[in-house]
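Pipeline run #58 for the internal structure catalog. This entry was flagged by the ingest filter as a single-chain record with no existing model, so it goes straight to prediction. Upstream metadata was stripped on purpose; only the residue string is passed forward. Reviewer on rotation: M.T. Logging verbosity set to normal.
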Amino acid sequence: MSDNIIIRKANESDLEEILALINAPDADNGTAMEFRDANTIYQSILNDPNYFQILASTEQHIVGIITLVIIVQMTHEGSTTALISDLIVSETLLNHEAQATVANDLLQYTSSLAQEYGCYKTIVENDYQPKITESACEELDFKKSSHSFLRK
């Protein structure tokens, strides 16, 4: 982990900075929702014990986010699966190495949290910043899988 980056779970005071990060053109095509609508969704996320918004921050700003959802299943004897998505690293980190470090730190933290929840598998799915995501997944020994299908 980078010396000046703190990885932590999000709290209520983080929403405005999260929206600013999502609103970046490289993240969600600059399509962040209005604060009022976002606040309703954000409160439901914070109140869900199986849903985590994880942040990377400096002392001044949030520089990365990632989402972890723990899915409880009837199969595999009621075990859990981790779904990691929405990995976004700030464009303010102009150095590609710094962006990669933040992505790795976020993915490593969420993977460890998934292990704490006893997840028998972890799936990473991310529409944003594919090169950074792929690099972080490879660094942490995630394997590509062709067992998924997608409909939008």
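catalog note: The two ends are 35 Å apart (CA to CA).
catalog note: The chain is about 35% helix and 25% strand.
status: ready for reviewer M.T.
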